[in-house]
Amino acid sequence: MTKEVIIEVCAFNLESCINAERGGAGRIELCGNPTEGGTTPAPGVLIQARKLVGIKLYPIIRPRGGFYFYSADEIESIRQDILFCKSIGCDGISIGAQKLDGSLDVDLCKRFVEWAYPMKATLNKAFDLAPNLHQSLEDAIDAGFERILTSGGKKAAIDALDILSNLMVLASDRIIIMPGCGLRSYNVAIIASATQAKEYHSAARVDIANPLTYQNPLVHDLGSVFNASAEEVRLIKANAEAALI
After folding, report:
1. Beta-carbon contacts of residue 242 (< 8 Å; ≥ 6 apart)
2. pLDDT tens per residue, range 157-178
3. Which entry of 9, 88, 118, 213 is 20 to 30 Å from 162 by CA?
4. Closest among 8, 38, 5 to 20, alpha carbons compared
């Protein structure tokens, strides 16, 4: 009997949210600014996304790119963003914070979780930046997170199979471990077979060509559009489920 997994799609626009749901994703991590690794989406995007999709919506709450050590003003902006997400019916948030020594800021993360309630909270890649992942795991549990998004402290999940497997054992049923980063349909079976995880995170993205018939060749600051592919989401889910024992 095939075991069902949950695919969380990291979506950077509304079309990706729609494609994620069409492809069978169970949850969306909605982000802005892909070049910075994801920041808090604009309010209008959040409102429209909540109207468009029926699956769980967990926006990332991150006021800027870079490190996860925040000033008092940034923390207040985070609080307001969390309350806004709650007010429009989001199911949870993706968030994290560090101390100056790189470890997880447990006290601040507890405040994030409290502000979000009854929404749930996923610990984002701040987990992987900590100097000791085993301590970071215990800190995440203490802070009250529902799950941890992790590539095992490596650039991509495929590079950290032993670490991810060990985290799965250490976590047991205390918190969900969700492998992610560089996860695609062609490698998810390897990750699933090694970890036996029940949740996976992927952008499942394809580059979208500019549809305009004219583009000034002297302007190069437009950036790129990355859309999640419904077919890639379907393949990730199918391949992960087939690899579970």
Report:
1. 2, 189
2. 999 999 999 999 999 999 999 9
3. 9
4. 8
Place of tokens 């949210």: 17
Structural domain count, the chain? 1
Domain range holding 153? 6-207+223-243
The one-letter amino acid code at 46 reads L
The CATH number that applies at residue 87 is 3.20.20.380
Q: What is the pLDDT of residues 80-112, one digit of tens each?
A: 999 999 999 999 999 999 999 999 999 999 999
Residue 33 lies in a domain: yes
- Picking from 178, 226, 211, the residue whose alpha carbon sits closest to that of residue 56 is 178
- Asked, for residue 213, whether it belongs to a domain, the answer is no
